[in-house]
Each structure stands twice: as structure tokens, then as C-alpha cells.
Design brief:
Blueprint: H1 5-13, H2 17-29, H3 43-51, H4 55-62, H5 66-73, H6 82-92, H7 94-101
Helix pairs in contact: 3-6, 3-7, 4-5, 6-7
Length: 102
């Protein structure tokens, strides 16, 4: 159950924020991490990152809109046909795409 406004003020009046911040810095420097989050990236995003191209350039190379590329990267849609093949090439041989874009 959430705390009332009065309870929050009473709790905050007892806190020493300086000491809490200092303790946090000490913990960070000693290597203690509170939480570590790992974000999974889609294969399309991984291919684009390997190629070193921006979303706009990668979308132009694939012949799709930036919005379509964003849908693929965020998992709302899946590429099909030639786009999937080009993405596979981008993943395995990003140097080939760099030759095409030059």
C-alpha cells in the first residue's frame, strides 16, 4: 500500500541524503552493482550496427522506409524476401555493404 503524504514527509525528515549518496558512491567504486539490465537487440538491429550505417542509410540501402526498418528492429514486423537476404548479408559480411554504399 502506498505511503500517505504525511508518512512520506516523516520518512524524508529522518533521512540523511548526503550519507546515502556517499554510501552509494562507495558501493559503486567497490564494484557492487544494484541491478544489471541486458537489452536484447534484434537480428536486424545487429546487422545494421555491424554495417555501421544509420537507420536512414540502412533503410535506403534495403529500399524500405525508415518506419519499416524501425518496425523490424522493434519486432513489430518481420522482413521478408529480398530484404531478409540483404540483412543476412549485412550480418555476415558488413564489408560488402560498405562497398555498395561508397
Amino acid at each position: 500500500m502506498p505511503m500517505t503524504e504525511k508518512e512520506l514527509k516523516e520518512r524524508d525528515a529522518k533521512r540523511d541524503l548526503g550519507a546515502e549518496l556517499l554510501e552509494s558512491v562507495v558501493q559503486m567504486k567497490s564494484g557492487h552493482a544494484g541491478r544489471i539490465h541486458k537489452v536484447e537487440i534484434s537480428p536486424v538491429t545487429a546487422a545494421r550496427l555491424k554495417s555501421g550505417l544509420s537507420q536512414a542509410d540502412f533503410a535506403r540501402l534495403l529500399g524500405v522506409s525508415i518506419r519499416t526498418l524501425q518496425d523490424w528492429e522493434q519486432g513489430r514486423r518481420q522482413p521478408s524476401g529480398a530484404a531478409r537476404t540483404l540483412i543476412t548479408i549485412a550480418e555476415r559480411r558488413p564489408d560488402v555493404l560498405k562497398e555498395i554504399t561508397l
